[in-house]
Design brief:
7-stranded parallel beta sheet; alpha/beta; 13 strands; about 425 residues; 6-stranded parallel beta sheet
Length: about 425
């Protein structure tokens, strides 16, 4: 069995999409001839929410090394004590956008631990997973020092990422330089979705492969297929924020409730995850607000109970130009649940293609309020008749199962070590 140094800042017990992705690979890589030596940050790094139950998914024989880190955000936290100060606000913007990211304080700790592992464990390849991009900078330094084959896996684009801001031109130049180093030095670039290949400043088509996010069938095997019958429950999981809002969906719900096409005591909108107040802005005293239930972050295992109990699943794509290329992690868990999906976003692109190919739901444009109302009402009427079922293409869905996706990653590791 070959050994891979598996560098991922995000790792259980943290509960976020990067951690869940890393968990999947660490859990199943041994099935395909690769023994992962995980290098990550110590538990509780930067105060992220955690789910200790996720650690139960990692095989006991997987070696996990956790390092310390330098908290580089302390000055920013100090500046925030002066919210009225323009200077403090400017300094916050500068400090919060350190290249390549605020996790740069992890680099020295991770690098020296990585060298120790390489020297003692006969490592055959290096694998880095972002975000944060600091993981790739660690991989770059290790590649330069050891010459080991290296695969850099991007969960999002880098300098083209709409979440990144550059108050100073120098910050953008530094970030672009680090990105260029990574893209040129890595033996293989792994992308979270195929359309990402066009979102980098240089042509990486000859050295890139797509390994999408996935669902783990074991999360569903223990669950009953019994749906709720007391209420027509539309369930959303994940975050809501400035460019991922439920505004158009809530407007459609408001219309249907006010027109009495939906019975207010028979409908529930369940939101699981982190939802900022801006996501529901303008609906605080509406009819729609009376059917909303927000439960916040839940242990990951509980999310699947709610997916299976839902009548309909709501998927909201980002309102950004990149949305047509992007596939959210929850998409794969949605299609595996067997529940019908209402997806809001561009009607063409990677996510709509998956939903149509798997025959798991309908896609409606963000701004098509009438189209959204039609989709909701159609499913509600079928639910009232006890006929809200779909016939998914399970063979197509199986292509996105965790073990199959991990197999693709293992094949990339095989490729770079055979060159």
């Amino acid at each position: 069995m070959k050994n891979v140094l598996f560098i991922s800042y995000e790792f259980p017990p943290k509960i976020n999409i990067g951690s869940l992705q890393a968990c999947t690979y660490a859990r199943y890589l041994q099935n395909f001839g690769w023994n992962p030596h995980v290098l990550t940050v110590r538990k509780g790094g930067f105060g992220e929410p955690v789910d200790e139950l996720l650690m139960n998914k990692i095989p006991s024989e997987v070696q996990i090394t956790r390092t310390g880190y330098l908290e580089v955000r302390q000055p920013s936290l100090l500046f925030r004590k002066f919210p009225e100060s323009r200077l403090a606000h400017a300094l916050i913007r500068l400090w919060d956008n350190l290249p390549p990211d605020e996790q740069i304080g992890w680099l020295p700790f991770a690098y020296f631990q990585a060298m120790r592992i390489i020297c003692s464990q006969q490592i055959d390849a290096i694998y880095t997973l972002s975000g944060p991009y600091t993981s790739h900078l660690i991989g770059y330094l290790l590649k330069k020092k050891t010459g080991l084959p290296w695969a850099a896996h991007f969960g999002d684009e880098w300098t083209q990422n709409p979440n990144r801001t550059y108050p100073l031109a120098l910050q953008r130049k530094i970030d672009a330089m680090l990105e260029q180093w990574t893209l040129n030095s890595a033996d293989q670039i792994v992308l979270a979705w195929p359309g990402m290949v066009s979102l980098f400043p240089i042509d990486i088509s000859t050295k890139s492969s797509a390994v999408t996010l996935s669902f783990d069938e074991t999360n569903f095997q223990r669950l009953s297929d019994k749906k709720r019958t007391d209420k027509f429950c539309i369930t959303y999981t994940g975050s809501l924020y400035n460019y991922r809002k439920a505004t158009s969906f809530l407007r459609a719900m408001e219309d249907l409730l006010s027109e009495k096409q939906l019975a207010i005591d028979r409908v529930e909108l369940l939101f699981m995850g982190q939802a900022r107040s801006v996501a529901f802005s303008g609906f605080e005293n509406s009819l729609a607000s009376k059917v909303i239930r927000c439960v916040g972050l839940l242990p990951h295992c509980q999310v699947f109970d709610h997916l299976k109990q839902a009548s309909v699943l709501l998927l909201i794509m980002d309102q950004l130009n990149r949305a047509k290329h992007c596939i959210q992690g929850k998409t794969f868990e949605y299609i595996a649940s067997g529940r019908p999906i209402i997806a809001l976003g561009p009607c063409e692109g990677a996510t709509p293609e998956i939903i149509r190919r798997t025959k798991t739901g309908v896609v409606v444009n963000y701004d098509d309020i009438e189209g959204i109302k039609t989709a909701i009402l159609s499913m509600y009427n079928r639910w009232e008749k006890g006929d809200l079922s779909i016939e998914p293409d399970w063979q197509e869905i199986s292509r996105h199962e965790a073990k199959e996706v991990t197999r693709k990653l293992s094949q990339i590791l095989d490729l770079i070590t055979e060159k």
